[in-house]
Design goal:
The chain is an alpha+beta fold. Helices cover about 10% and strands about 25% of the residues.
Length: about 120
Protein backbone atom coordinates (compact mmCIF):
# COMPACT_ATOMS: atom_id res chain seq x y z
CA UNK A 1 0.00 0.00 0.00
CA UNK A 2 2.99 2.31 0.26
CA UNK A 3 2.54 3.47 -3.31
CA UNK A 4 -1.03 4.51 -2.47
CA UNK A 5 -0.14 6.77 0.46
CA UNK A 6 -0.99 10.41 -0.04
CA UNK A 7 0.33 13.48 1.74
CA UNK A 8 -3.05 13.93 3.45
CA UNK A 9 -2.85 10.37 4.85
CA UNK A 10 0.35 11.31 6.72
CA UNK A 11 -0.44 14.94 7.58
CA UNK A 12 -1.22 14.37 11.29
CA UNK A 13 1.46 11.83 12.12
CA UNK A 14 3.27 12.77 15.32
CA UNK A 15 5.62 9.86 15.98
CA UNK A 16 6.45 6.32 14.95
CA UNK A 17 6.45 3.65 17.66
CA UNK A 18 8.60 0.60 16.95
CA UNK A 19 7.87 -2.65 18.75
CA UNK A 20 10.97 -4.48 17.51
CA UNK A 21 14.66 -3.77 16.93
CA UNK A 22 15.03 -2.32 13.42
CA UNK A 23 18.59 -3.64 13.07
CA UNK A 24 17.11 -7.11 12.53
CA UNK A 25 14.66 -6.04 9.82
CA UNK A 26 15.55 -5.45 6.17
CA UNK A 27 12.03 -4.27 5.40
CA UNK A 28 8.59 -3.81 6.89
CA UNK A 29 5.22 -3.76 5.19
CA UNK A 30 3.16 -0.63 5.70
CA UNK A 31 -0.58 -0.17 5.43
CA UNK A 32 -3.22 2.34 6.44
CA UNK A 33 -5.60 0.91 9.02
CA UNK A 34 -8.72 2.47 10.48
CA UNK A 35 -8.64 2.55 14.27
CA UNK A 36 -10.81 3.88 17.08
CA UNK A 37 -8.00 5.77 18.78
CA UNK A 38 -5.32 8.08 17.42
CA UNK A 39 -2.62 7.59 20.05
CA UNK A 40 -2.63 4.05 21.46
CA UNK A 41 -1.39 0.75 20.09
CA UNK A 42 -3.96 -0.31 17.49
CA UNK A 43 -5.44 -3.80 17.31
CA UNK A 44 -3.71 -6.14 14.88
CA UNK A 45 -5.96 -8.41 12.83
CA UNK A 46 -3.61 -9.86 10.17
CA UNK A 47 -1.45 -12.96 10.05
CA UNK A 48 2.08 -12.35 11.21
CA UNK A 49 2.93 -9.59 13.62
CA UNK A 50 2.81 -5.84 14.05
CA UNK A 51 6.30 -4.31 14.33
CA UNK A 52 5.30 -0.65 14.60
CA UNK A 53 2.59 1.96 14.28
CA UNK A 54 2.07 5.71 14.03
CA UNK A 55 0.63 7.98 16.72
CA UNK A 56 -1.43 10.91 15.41
CA UNK A 57 -1.32 14.46 16.76
CA UNK A 58 -4.13 16.25 18.62
CA UNK A 59 -5.40 17.91 15.43
CA UNK A 60 -6.19 14.60 13.72
CA UNK A 61 -9.91 14.10 13.20
CA UNK A 62 -11.70 10.83 12.63
CA UNK A 63 -13.54 10.11 9.41
CA UNK A 64 -16.99 11.72 9.76
CA UNK A 65 -18.77 8.63 8.39
CA UNK A 66 -17.02 5.87 10.34
CA UNK A 67 -15.65 7.76 13.34
CA UNK A 68 -12.30 6.00 12.78
CA UNK A 69 -8.79 7.40 12.34
CA UNK A 70 -6.55 6.36 9.43
CA UNK A 71 -3.12 5.38 10.73
CA UNK A 72 -0.10 3.59 9.37
CA UNK A 73 0.73 0.19 10.77
CA UNK A 74 3.99 -1.63 10.05
CA UNK A 75 3.94 -5.41 9.97
CA UNK A 76 5.53 -8.62 8.73
CA UNK A 77 3.91 -11.86 7.57
CA UNK A 78 5.12 -15.39 8.39
CA UNK A 79 6.68 -15.85 4.94
CA UNK A 80 8.64 -12.56 5.00
CA UNK A 81 12.44 -12.55 4.86
CA UNK A 82 13.08 -12.10 8.59
CA UNK A 83 11.25 -15.38 9.38
CA UNK A 84 12.04 -17.28 6.17
CA UNK A 85 15.37 -15.97 4.77
CA UNK A 86 15.50 -18.60 2.00
CA UNK A 87 11.84 -18.22 1.08
CA UNK A 88 9.92 -16.31 -1.55
CA UNK A 89 11.49 -12.95 -0.57
CA UNK A 90 15.09 -14.16 -0.50
CA UNK A 91 15.48 -11.69 -3.38
CA UNK A 92 13.10 -8.78 -3.80
CA UNK A 93 10.36 -7.71 -1.43
CA UNK A 94 6.58 -7.26 -1.35
CA UNK A 95 5.19 -4.17 -3.09
CA UNK A 96 4.28 -2.43 0.17
CA UNK A 97 7.68 -3.12 1.76
CA UNK A 98 10.02 -0.26 2.66
CA UNK A 99 13.24 0.05 4.63
CA UNK A 100 12.19 0.88 8.23
CA UNK A 101 15.26 3.12 8.61
CA UNK A 102 13.69 5.53 6.09
CA UNK A 103 10.36 5.88 7.90
CA UNK A 104 9.62 9.05 9.84
CA UNK A 105 6.40 10.83 10.76
CA UNK A 106 4.84 12.34 7.62
CA UNK A 107 7.33 10.41 5.43
CA UNK A 108 6.16 7.25 3.63
CA UNK A 109 9.49 5.42 3.69
CA UNK A 110 11.55 4.25 0.75
CA UNK A 111 12.77 1.14 -0.96
CA UNK A 112 16.53 0.66 -0.61
CA UNK A 113 19.02 -1.98 -1.76
CA UNK A 114 18.76 -3.46 1.75
CA UNK A 115 14.96 -3.67 1.67
CA UNK A 116 14.99 -5.16 -1.82
CA UNK A 117 17.83 -7.56 -0.88
CA UNK A 118 19.91 -6.72 -3.90
CA UNK A 119 23.51 -5.76 -4.24
CA UNK A 120 24.12 -2.03 -4.71
CA UNK A 121 25.17 -2.67 -8.32
CA UNK A 122 21.87 -4.36 -9.17
CA UNK A 123 19.78 -1.74 -7.35
CA UNK A 124 21.38 1.11 -9.32
CA UNK A 125 20.61 -0.31 -12.80
Amino acid sequence: MSSLLTESDLLHEEKVVWLEDLDRLDYVRQALDKTRRRNTKPPYLRDGRMVGYVVLDDQAEPDPDSGLYKRRVFFLLPHDRDSDPDGVYHQGAPGEAVDPRTIEPKQPGAKTPRSQHRSAAIAQT
